[in-house]
């Protein structure tokens, strides 16, 4: 249990709530097991079925490996073969055997041969969690992922990840993305733990300082998502395609929640390893959470968190996405753990009440990945239910300490 100043008042200290989270996690895992295909893992539709033509993709495969590794570490049956299947796919049809790194789809059969930082961050995360789970081949995959990150994506000069390259590592994209660097930060936190190397925490701090402490602090603590190669904001980026699933126009409250949580993990990890730890990590986490709640929650007359905002913090895309709520609950839990303040506990309970009443699909399973502004199921941005990772982590994070990786924390609990 989490030792809080107001422990008796927190759901984090409730045996019943802990069991509820565990049960929800098991249901999410059971639903996701149907996503296995020969070349990895594919997206499921809203009924939990795989369309006949559903292709594997690398992000889904890596997220499934990571999630099933976390489950296996806990002693949950049926996950080890799925981890091994995903590792084989990442070491086979999803890998570029000629130039190294990974394609978005097996053998780049979707026509996209570019190598993206976002995707490679998830490969590293998956390999690290599988290594903690003790799965064969994971150590070699982890070594390969780290080599690619260091050789191509990490920019020591910029203190951040470069965005993407052509398949032969030429043609560096003249764009810098907060989203890829956010998931790079997540991967680096895991690598620091799994590899026992402080270097990754220093790199994570450099990313956070650039993207959050310098840029988001100038934008009401809602992360600026898009930059040019000189890290100048691109305020009109995707204005004509505002609902893009990965690079939407404007600001994304869900990423403010996610960054808030990651800053607290980074603070805890650096403290645990005796590294210098700036005060702004906690201060910025508070600001990010406050802004996401202020500008994202119930701002269009209906309950829930909108997907995006414009530069005046007005709603643009009003759909409610499941990952946003998952990250909101996880961020609130992290702030409860870090501060013991009941204001964050109130938000934590509010977010889970919303998830329970609106997001959890008790008829067809898992969570609705998208709701419309009326809080009814929608599929305008994300069709089906392809994602296990966000919701499953939301059921685990409130039960674990802020420091060390999810995989290592679960292993210590056994």
UniProtKB/TrEMBL annotation:
<dbReference type="GO" id="GO:0005975">
    <property type="term" value="P:carbohydrate metabolic process"/>
</dbReference>
<keyword id="KW-0413">Isomerase</keyword>
<dbReference type="InterPro" id="IPR010819">
    <property type="entry name" value="AGE/CE"/>
</dbReference>
<comment type="similarity">
    <text>Belongs to the N-acylglucosamine 2-epimerase family.</text>
</comment>
<dbReference type="GO" id="GO:0016853">
    <property type="term" value="F:isomerase activity"/>
</dbReference>
<protein>
    <submittedName>
        <fullName>Mannose or cellobiose epimerase, N-acyl-D-glucosamine 2-epimerase family</fullName>
    </submittedName>
</protein>
<dbReference type="Pfam" id="PF07221">
    <property type="entry name" value="GlcNAc_2-epim"/>
</dbReference>
<dbReference type="InterPro" id="IPR008928">
    <property type="entry name" value="6-hairpin_glycosidase_sf"/>
</dbReference>
<dbReference type="InterPro" id="IPR012341">
    <property type="entry name" value="6hp_glycosidase-like_sf"/>
</dbReference>
């Amino acid at each position: 249990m989490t030792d809080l100043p107001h422990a008796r008042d927190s759901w984090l200290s409730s045996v019943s709530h802990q069991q509820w989270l565990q049960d929800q996690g098991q249901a999410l895992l059971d639903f996701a097991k149907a996503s296995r295909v020969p070349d990895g893992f594919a997206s499921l539709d809203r009924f939990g079925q795989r369309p006949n033509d559903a292709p594997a993709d690398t992000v889904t495969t890596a997220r499934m490996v990571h999630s099933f590794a976390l489950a296996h570490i806990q002693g949950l049956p049926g996950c080890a073969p799925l981890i091994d299947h995903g590792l084989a796919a990442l070491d086979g049809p999803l890998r570029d055997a000629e130039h190294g790194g990974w394609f978005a789809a097996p053998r780049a059969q979707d026509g996209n041969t570019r190598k993206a930082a976002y995707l490679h961050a998830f490969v590293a995360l998956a390999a690290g969690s599988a290594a903690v789970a003790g799965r064969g081949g994971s150590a070699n995959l982890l070594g390969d992922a780290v080599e690619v990150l260091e050789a191509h994506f990490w920019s020591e000069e910029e203190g951040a990840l470069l965005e993407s390259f052509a398949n032969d590592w030429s043609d560096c994209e003249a764009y810098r993305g907060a989203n890829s660097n956010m998931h790079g930060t997540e991967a680096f936190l895991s690598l620091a733990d799994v590899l026992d190397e402080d270097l990754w925490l220093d790199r994570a701090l450099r990313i956070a300082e650039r993207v959050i402490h310098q840029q988001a602090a100038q934008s009401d603590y809602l992360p600026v998502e898009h930059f040019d190669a000189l890290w100048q904001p691109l305020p009109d980026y995707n204005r004509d395609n505002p609902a893009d699933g990965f690079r939407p126009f404007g600001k994304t409250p869900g990423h403010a929640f996610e960054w808030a949580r990651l800053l607290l993990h980074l603070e805890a990890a650096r403290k645990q390893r005796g590294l210098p730890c700036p005060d702004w990590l906690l201060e910025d986490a508070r600001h990010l959470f406050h802004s996401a709640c202020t500008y994202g929650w119930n701002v269009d007359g209906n309950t829930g968190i909108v997907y995006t905002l414009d530069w005046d913090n007005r709603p643009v895309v009003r759909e409610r996405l499941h990952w946003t709520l998952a990250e909101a609950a996880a961020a609130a839990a992290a702030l409860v753990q870090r501060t013991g303040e009941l204001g964050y506990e109130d938000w934590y309970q509010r977010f889970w009440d919303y998830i329970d009443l609106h997001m959890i699909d008790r008829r067809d399973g898992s969570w609705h990945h998208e709701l419309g502004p009326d809080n009814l199921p929608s599929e305008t941005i994300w069709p089906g239910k392809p994602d296990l990772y966000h919701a499953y982590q939301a059921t685990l994070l409130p039960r674990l300490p802020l420091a060390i990786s999810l995989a290592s924390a679960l292993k210590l609990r056994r």
